[in-house]
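User: Show me a protein chain along with its predicted structure.
Assistant: Here is one chain, sequence first, then structure tokens.
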Amino acid sequence: MLKRCWIPLVAACAACGGSGQRSEQPGPDAPLTHSMTAGGMTQNPAAHVAGAWELRALNRERTGTLLQLVLDSASGHAFRTRVAFLMQGDMGIDTAAFVATPGRVTATGAIRIEVGNKRGAPPGVIVGRATRDTIYVVEFIWGGEDRMQSGTQWVLVRQR
């Protein structure tokens, strides 16, 4: 279920030009802004999010799950999600334990990523809203747990 919300963020991001100024990011159902339509976002939304992404907690040092995803095979509103790297605690998890799963970008720019695994555990689910190089997460379920409950604000940052 998509949550309708506005998340206040303090971060150097595309939305604030890297200035670090306080910025409000739209929830997943908000209409696209001019900056989000640049580069053909409305014509081929999945191509806009194709690439390597790293999960990060805002305003905190890296702790807990370290996750890198590759979003590829973009066509129209659909893409494929693959796990490129996963470390939980002090243990690396073999990426062969995961399966490529479909993802989707809605017409309003909301992104839904699912991370499937071969062990039959519930899939990881990340729902967010993209700017040019950042996906602001509004729903994050991992290992059957809602990771947003702790109050941590999560983002996926495009890797270059």
